[in-house]
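Forwarding the complex inputs:
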Amino acid sequence: MPKSTHVSELDLIAEIRRAFPASRRRTVPLGIGDDCAILRPPPGHDLLVTTDFTLESRHFRRETHPAQAVGHRCLARGLSDLAAMGATPLAAFLSLALPRNFPGTPIGRRWLKDFLAGLGNLASATHTPLAGGDTAQSPTETILADIVLTGIAPTGTALRRSGARPGDDIYVTGALGGAAAELRSVLAGKSPRRASKGDYPHLYPHLYPQPRLAQGQVLRRRALATACIDLSDGLSTDLTHLCAASGVRAEIDFTALPIHPLAQTQPDAFHLAVNGGEDYELLLTAAPTTRIPGKIAEIPLTRIGTILKRNFRHPPITLLHTDGSREPLNPGGWQHFTTQELFVEGK
Amino acid sequence: MPKSTHVSELDLIAEIRRAFPASRRRTVPLGIGDDCAILRPPPGHDLLVTTDFTLESRHFRRETHPAQAVGHRCLARGLSDLAAMGATPLAAFLSLALPRNFPGTPIGRRWLKDFLAGLGNLASATHTPLAGGDTAQSPTETILADIVLTGIAPTGTALRRSGARPGDDIYVTGALGGAAAELRSVLAGKSPRRASKGDYPHLYPHLYPQPRLAQGQVLRRRALATACIDLSDGLSTDLTHLCAASGVRAEIDFTALPIHPLAQTQPDAFHLAVNGGEDYELLLTAAPTTRIPGKIAEIPLTRIGTILKRNFRHPPITLLHTDGSREPLNPGGWQHFTTQELFVEGK
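Prediction (whole assembly, two chains):
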């Protein structure tokens, strides 16, 4: 048994505070250390809020996922929700429950340090201060985290899921299926334990997804998109959400889908791209008269289909093949992707 | 084995939405159903944010705590943090992870219904709409919740822990030790399973604590308090936090402490009152020239001591007895209150 020393909640809070320098921004006049944090969004801005659980053996496995990647993904999920609405991050809140004695062991201390580093690196890169949260002892041997992201957007300008109109073109940022393909090798124990800084954005779409904040902000600022959602559950599921919110249906061009290089080598590349989930790319619609740039901040945008008028004789999403034939594309995203219990995830 | 039916995350979200009617307020233009919620604090207001875990077998036990009380307490903890800063609730966010199959069983369905009712009743009573959250399957058999409360206060007016000055008087709202005394009987299995509406505020300080929102708002609006904190960890611990944040020390009058009727019948009434925790009363300081009302919104305020200049030869908190003798009062709140693992709680 490793030697274990008692680590109190106050020690844990101190460790978290060390990993995140106190914010001196005017928009966060009071961070960790009082009953509440105080946020002061600039006048004329809405505040956007999203929360995401990160639960061991649901969203990650300690054996296969480096702690650094767990911390990164924890924050990336919420940042991607902000990106989908074109928001700028304001502050994050981390609730963390560790198993009893875990932070008192060398392995636990290392895990915590790496977890906070992964979270902190992405927080720095995206200018997201940590303004609060909660700590507790986990009631079991599983690590539990919940993260809150707040962001801002000028009043009334945030992108929503509900604005797609018949005739709009459908676009995605980046490429699809990479996260699911990488997850497959991670679960098989093939992924490197630690990524060196800088090389991960393309190589590790599952372990180190890059939230499309810059892209979302340009889309919002230039009013390019009629609707937007992030691809967390997979194209087939998230496009279904967007269509339901907008009261429309959609047709996807089979040949137009940008498949991630990691997925291209897999026999079920198309399945990974449409059902894989967790790519954290943006899915957006734009009026046919809008000129969508080929790239925003280095990331390509690809037209993949068309929004159509809802018609209950047609399925919500159809797939158009090169020979002109059509088939329904059923929502088959993350919830059903793996036969494993692991990574059954909501939202 | 009870019959179990599969309940998906979407069903769970639908159940939660049913328990909380959609907000039509201008301050919450977009609630559940998009990538983020949108909050629109009125111009000239700060936004306050606090998060609190509620984890089974840490913060409650399924065997002894009625689900209705678990839901109530879940929200009450965050509302009490808002109260301590004099804020008005804006919106809540609930993250909830239930054990696999639990919501598919009759017992689980009943638990969820009661939990949401307890949460929803307090949300209605305090005008706190639910604007979002997350759901997941718990990785174990324990129920996991994390709740985010947001509130508003006119810019720069929120009460803080850090404003106490030497010479200030120390006050508490309500009475102390009731929650710890009731917890004792709850753990012994003596508490009623369900409270009838209306009778619980005084009878059930542990199961149904009443956040002092009205009192905090009056203190802030009339600028009566120099510092304020809520009593979540116990007077000895929370007063230590307030003194540390303000750079002062404190002396408590032994005879002045208002002891809750439920605690008065216990042999260790004083211990329960100063170390018991979770009373969710407000602890505040006021300049000696400020006239503090005897009651605010029906709840008495009692002067219990004085703020003194920090002096490293004296302990941070001393207790003044009737005979003029003094003894140190060490922080001995919630973290160390019970010998049980249960209810070891941070912050």
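Confidence is low (pLDDT under 50) at residues 1-5, 334-347 of chain A.
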